[in-house]
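Service request form, structural biology core

Requester: graduate student, group of Dr. S.
Request type: structure prediction, single chain
Budget code: on file
Notes: please return the result as structure tokens.

Sequence provided:
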Amino acid sequence: MKIPILQLKNILLASIQVDLTDEDALEFQSDVLRKAAETDAAGIIIDITALDVVDSFMARILNETATMAQLLGAEVVISGMQPAVALTLVEMGRELTHVKTALNLDQGLEKLNNCIAAKNGIVTPREGNRRDND
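Core staff response, request fulfilled:
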């Protein structure tokens, strides 16, 4: 099953709406990385709000996809993880290491934009306020 990957300026958005087979997950990984390289994406959001279950293979694919995209120069945020999915991943020992996460797509976009800005040396108003309060 092909997962649509939308381009919003310099950000790619992929929303996984259905459970993926292992083959589909590998195809998704390949598609995201290809599109990131083709578009020189600054960031990628992978939204998994619709997923009630993430098995160890899918967790590994998400983790590896984020790591590979970072090697291509893109920041990555995974948004919409359900509490039961987070619990299961931790219990299985499959935490998403070195991957930024956000509760929902809005927070994911904000986090991704802040990461991109920080990478480019730009201080966002919200980050400036945090630094002033430290």
